[in-house]
Amino acid sequence: TSAASRVSSDDGTRVYSRSFFGRVQYKYQDKYIAYATLRNEAANKYNQEKSITLPSVGLAWIVSSEGFMNSANNPIDYLKLRAGWGRLANGNVPTARAQSANSVWAVFNDTKVDGFNFSSYQDNLSWEFNEELNLGADVELLNRRLNITVDYFVKNTKKLAIPVLPQVGNETSYNNVGAMRNKGIEISATWRGKIGEDWGYTIGGNFSTIHNEVTDLFGQAFITRGPLAEFPQRLTVGQPFDVFYGYEITGVYQTQAEVDGDPAAVAANTAGAGTVKPGYFKFRDVNGDKVLDAKDRIYLGSPAPTYYYGGSIGLDYKNIDLSIRIYGQGGNIIFNSSRAEVFRNQGRNIDAQLAENRWHGEGTSNSYPSSE
């Protein structure tokens, strides 16, 4: 190619930011504590709001330092009550998209006229921020062998960047108009003991709950998300983030008589929407109209866990220690994309759990469908 046809371009952007913060703390008589933090973030990536101020405050009371706690029979060695409130910003929200123009043409008086079609969306993006309230207590008991920490928190995410449809047109814009809330309880406990002069042990555990809920979508009923249109997820006010939205499975058809006795299956077969036969999933007719359609879809659950737990056991001898830890979570549902693709496409391997437990005749399974 000629030198004139070789073109290079640089579409890079420069993003810079700065941050200032300060903290003050005051302690009175080693039992009353107050602190305050003020942070200011600024960046050039947002057009509307160049900077944001983020305050936080906290109070603590060491109750065990009070005179009324000095009892010989008091099992509490240390007790601290805490309360705090503060804000944190999320500067990972992308910059507003640049509006674009597409070449179009139309015919006027039998003459082709070239023109441009300009995008109509108008992003208005800035920082998201979290506003959190925390109440907690730290306790040490039985000669400080037992430590317990309890916290209650409410975290509101405000100015959540979400897509918004305009009143006119269909080009979605992104704006900081959504909101979400997380709240829950965190509990942890640790017991430390000795066995003789050189041996010691530690046993610990923790458990936390979290309730997630979308609280504002700027008046929109829902926002559809998810990687596959057949298995949609939604943002909906009053529901967890990215909740699954679909049909509830109630079992697997075992016999042809069971298929013929289900009005929804008969209606599907009659309409030619697909052949329902033994080994297929049975779905709940939510509204009871004896037809399985989009009106029967419900919220099935969220991929976000509703509780977490953990535990540890430790053993030490002089300067040598050994520990074992476990972690877990639950209360969520998991979308198995690989298994879903098996039923959509031909020629793919199936996982061992489905292969071993699949329906292959009456009474063989009421949880796993036929692989056919």
Walk me through the topology.
Elements (H helix, E strand, L loop, with lengths): L16 E12 L3 E12 L7 E12 L13 E15 L10 E8 L2 E8 L9 E14 L4 E19 L8 E23 L3 E11 L1 E6 L6 E3 L7 E3 L7 E4 L2 E4 L3 H5 L2 H9 L9 E3 L14 E4 L5 E11 L2 E11 L6 H8 L7 H6 L15
Antiparallel strand pairs: 1-2, 2-3, 3-4, 4-7, 5-6, 7-8, 8-9, 9-10, 9-11, 10-18, 12-13, 13-14, 14-17, 15-16, 18-19
Give structural notes:
- This protein is mostly beta strands and 372 residues long.
- It has helices spanning 256-260, 263-271, 337-344, 352-357, and strands spanning 17-28, 32-43, 51-62, 76-90, 101-108, 111-118, 128-141, 146-164, 173-195, 199-209, 211-216, 223-225, 233-235, 243-246, 249-252, 281-283, 298-301, 307-317, 320-330.
- The mean pLDDT is 88.
Largest sheet: 11 strands, antiparallel
Distance between the termini: 55 Å
**Mean of pLDDT:** 88
Order of helices and strands: EEEEEEEEEEEEEEEHHEEEEHH
Structure keywords:
372 residues; mainly beta; 11-stranded antiparallel sheet; 4-stranded antiparallel sheet
Q: How would you concisely characterize the structure shown here?
A:
Helix content is 8%, strand content 49%.
